[in-house]
Amino acid sequence: MLNIQDVAIKYAAQPQSIVKNFSLHVAPGEICGIVGESGSGKTSIIRAVLGCLPGGGRGTDGDILFENQSLLANTPEQWRCLRGSEISLIFQDAGAMLNPIRTIGSQFVEYIRTHQAMPKKQAYALGLKMLERMQLPDGANIMRSYPFQLSGGQRQRVGIAMGMVFQPKLLLADEPTSALDVTTQAQIVRQMLQLRKQYGTAIVIVTHNIGLAAYMADKIVVMKKGCIEEQGNREQLQKTQSAYTRALLDAVPSLEGERYV
Questions:
Q1: Cβ contacts of 146 within 8 Å, gap of 6 or more
Q2: In this structure, what are the phi and psi dihedrals at residue 75, rounded to the nearest 5 degrees?
Q3: What are 213-256's pLDDT values in tens digits?
Q4: DSSP state of 102
Q5: Smallest Cα–Cα separation from 93: which of 20, 154, 9?
Q6: pLDDT digits (tens, 9 = 90+) for 106-118
Q7: In this structure, how many other beta carbons lie within 10 angstroms of the beta carbon of residue 76?
């Protein structure tokens, strides 16, 4: 489904490439975790997939293929058709991406009608249905609420609901649980796994937490300074010879002497 081939990414203000020789293949329904320290290039990769690199960022080498079609040559109209419907992105803090002076309902309806022509009442009903699928109680009240009236977990679920409304084939998640408490993190993780089970959605999740990636992902990519340090499944990484990957594994806390990674 997604095939990233030897991609390099450079920003206008940086003389050197931030990401170098990055390659990744994601099959339909597969979950891939990208882990590493801050500044390792994780977010740049998923933003490049969706063509929304900030700061004059651009791919300088390689190619990104989605269903055997190159994304790097997309026109603005092609991106508009692809984003939200075929490929969706959940931001680290979904609440920060919502307009604080508009209700959730008005923003959700506008989002739906931007991607698909339908009456407002039908778009509202679809948005309400997606909120209920995200296990948000009293979806009608959520639709009437402003973002500041919701908790962090509720806003994050609204972001996931928007991202999943058209049942995209690929979901990109940028630290979707980092700003949440532990209980809410567990709920969001279970919800994302349910989306894969229900819709067959492929997921690429960026996280600092290698324990979370080991729990969720079929494949884990470890990044360091813009390059792939190593990649493999949970069992393969447990046998790593890389000091950097071992340090990430050792950072996962243990419970009563048992380590869940």
A1: 100, 101, 102, 103, 104
A2: -85, 165
A3: 888 999 999 999 999 999 999 889 888 889 998 888 888 766 55
A4: S
A5: 154
A6: 999 999 998 888 9
A7: 8
The domain spans of the chain are 2-259
Q: Identity (one letter) of the amino acid at 129?
A: K
CA distances from 56 to 44, 50, 59, 91, 223 (A): 12, 14, 10, 19, 22
User: Residue 201 is encoded by which pair of tokens?
Assistant: 């959605």
Can you tell me the distance from the alpha carbon of 105 to that of 141, in angstroms, rounded to the nearest whole number?
9
CA distance 78 to 29: 24
Region 40-67: what's the mean pLDDT? Answer: 91
- Stretch 17-37: mean pLDDT, rounded? 94
33: alpha, beta or left, given left = phi > 0 and alpha = psi -120 to 50?
beta
Contacts of 22 (CB under 8 A, 6+ apart): 4, 6, 7, 8, 9, 41, 45, 62, 223, 226, 227, 228
Q: Can you name the CATH fold of 2-259?
A: Rossmann fold (3.40.50)
Q: Quick one: which of 66, 47, 48, 50 has its CA closest to 174?
A: 47
- Helix, strand, coil share of the chain (percent; to 5): 40, 25, 35
**What pLDDT sits at residue 254?**
61
